[in-house]
Write a structure and sequence with these properties.
With 351 residues, the protein is an alpha/beta fold. The chain has 11 helices and 11 strands.
């Protein structure tokens, strides 16, 4: 694994300026571990002491927030379409199975966040979490970084939002309620479909859609408003009128405050992995996908608008509104018909 270009030991150029991006952690601070337990079998954890934890979103992004916190890199949820896969290539790690099984853990994230929030230059801006990889993936059950992160944000009354597929968020309900009493807290759960057969193949490491929507109900019953990011809507596999209706019906039944559809987008890194999966499971769709995504990472604008219209009509029918000011701001997503991938190893966003 190539750590050198991310460490404090990287050599400067002849004029004294650094040759690459700012150091993320020290070269001697990487500890690699494996755990022979059923939930972690086959997964390698690289524990690092990060040098910064609050990341600026690239300027090209249209997301309604500027800062993120990501305690993990890589994700055992193993979603075949995950747009963040490309980030593993910055460490010379495989963007396929490596992304699913080689997890970087920033073990000092809570203490580092406290320090950065306390800096004189920090102005208390909204911080989004779960917009790169899931902060409530399986590793969080062992490393327990999120309680300290939520506490640090609550201590400073710093607004934040969380997007997750992980039901482990329910563990931190008391902390979320405490933070919500002093600042703006937004929570959204991602569930693009309710088809269990599709879920088992495309999101094999995640809790089931039904379990996620049950978590939405638990959050809302506890007084934490929770929206649903209906993502991804997968063309030709999860976008039939019947599938959309069933998903929106289930979202409404969960008590979600909003539903926001997002059509599958396939950035470099994710595109190759998803296409290989498609060839194994649905070879008859490979050519149709090649045509649909011939223009880049995003489905055609007409298709995105059609899905959005259908979902909003169903939401109105079932008595649930689209995302609005009261919903978690991490998922207010504009259409992006053209590619806008960052040029280097910067923080990726949903769009």
């Amino acid at each position: 694994m190539r750590w050198n270009h991310l460490t404090e030991d990287a050599k400067p150029a002849g004029d004294g300026r650094p040759t690459g991006p700012p150091a993320l952690f020290g070269a001697d601070s990487v500890v690699t571990r494996t755990f022979d337990t059923p939930e972690f079998r086959g997964i390698t954890f690289h524990e690092v002491r990060a040098r910064s934890i609050v990341n600026r979103v690239p300027g090209a992004s249209r997301m309604p927030f500027e800062w993120t916190v990501n305690p993990y890199r890589g994700c055992s949820h193993a979603c075949v379409y995950c747009f963040a896969r490309k980030t593993h290539s910055y460490l010379d790690l495989d963007t396929g199975t490596g992304f699913d099984s080689q997890i970087v853990v920033k073990v000092n994230a809570p203490e580092l966040l406290r320090r950065e929030l306390g800096a004189a230059r920090w102005d208390g801006a909204h911080i989004a979490m779960g917009t790169n990889v899931d902060c409530y993936q399986r590793a969080e059950g062992r490393y327990r970084l999120m309680p300290g992160i939520i506490e640090a944000l609550g201590e400073r009354a710093n607004p934040f939002s969380i997007l997750t597929k992980g039901t482990l968020i329910l563990r931190d309900l008391p902390l979320l309620r405490r933070a919500a009493a002093v600042t703006d807290v937004g929570v959204s759960v991602s569930a693009g479909f309710t088809d269990t057969a599709l879920w088992r193949t495309v999101e094999p490491g995640t809790p089931s859609p039904a379990a996620r929507l049950a978590a939405v109900r638990a959050l809302t019953d506890a007084g934490i408003e929770c929206g649903v990011l209906m993502a991804p809507v997968i063309p030709f596999l999860g976008d039939s009128p019947e599938q959309l209706r069933e998903t929106v019906r289930a979202v409404a039944a969960s008590g979600a405050t909003s539903v926001t559809p997002l059509v599958l987008h396939l950035r470099p890194g994710a595109r190759e992995w998803f296409t290989a999966w498609l060839g194994r499971h649905h070879p008859h769709l490979v050519e149709r996908y090649a045509r649909m995504y011939a223009g880049g990472s995003y489905a055609p604008t007409w298709y995105q608008r059609r899905i959005t219209r259908q979902v909003h009509e169903l939401a109105a029918e079932f008595g649930i509104g689209p995302s609005g000011p009261g919903a978690a701001r991490a998922v207010v997503l504009p259409e992006r018909p053209a590619d806008a991938a960052p040029a280097g190893p910067t923080q990726l966003t949903l769009l």
